[in-house]
Input
Amino acid sequence: MSAFMNHNPNNSFEVAQPPSDSVSSLSFSPKSNLLVSTSWDNQVRCWDIQRIGTNIAAAPKSSFSHDHPVLCSTWKDDGMAVFSGGCDRQVKMWSLMSGGHTSTVAMHDAPIKEIAWIPEMALLVTGSWDKTMKYWDLRQPNPVHTQQLPERCYALTVKHPLMVVGTADRNLIIFNLQSPQTEFKRIISPLKYQTRCVAAFPDKQGFLVGSIEGRVGVQHLDEGQDSKNFTFKCHRENNALYSVNSINFHPVHHTFSTAGSDGSISFWDKDSKQRLKAMQRCNQPIPCSTFNNDGSIYAYSVCYDWHKGAENHNPSTSKTSIFLHLPQDADVKSKPRPGGRR
Output
């Protein structure tokens, strides 16, 4: 029971004034250590994270509200604005540097699950449960293009010119953003169960996909590289399978983290096919995580993720927390595989 009560077994730094309900996304500014969270309590919050050596301070900066739960967030590449979308079917742009002004910049017919800013195109892309994806030029009120999807959008990753969209029914739709209005390729996920998250390789040659049954797929775009594709198990305990909720590539070393509904985080090297580090398991799921722009800070949330429904939600034991972890080089740097090639 005492292990269950420990919501911070890794002694990570805990952020003050966390959301009052589960966290749905975490996003660091590309230009600074400003951290934004979105939550099921309808709020978008921002903290200013200051790191001095091994010490971290997180000062709550500001917040604003949507009308309904917020599901996703992303930053503009200049670090001047945050975009957030969710169950009110709209994306709001929050201009943090100009008095906190907010404006609606995108709309859908159903909740917006994923958003990304594409600096190379100066466009915002939004993916919704209305089975469409839309591209938005912020100078215009209407989308510049609406892309029909085969099913509801569940996951999205962009590393220009690569974009991968994961939908219901295990569809993975790959786009070359040099021709953004046509699908480059559509495949069925190599994983047998529902897609939860996707992450483009830093070199844009492929992507990772995580599913609800504790497995990750490593997928290359070039069919000549098919022999390098593989899947591996993670976020499992005994016979229980847990969702892989978040995959993040380290911005410098290009290894990656996975965070799951089992409350655990692991760091991996796909090229040597090994786990570099497993953190201590937390007492609740980890629905989202992210690295800051230089990979020196890893933020993650610990809270109920609703995968077992409202009937399994116990407000007396389900505290919502956001933590900041300082990864050691050994945790996130590739290392040669013992014994050479396998």
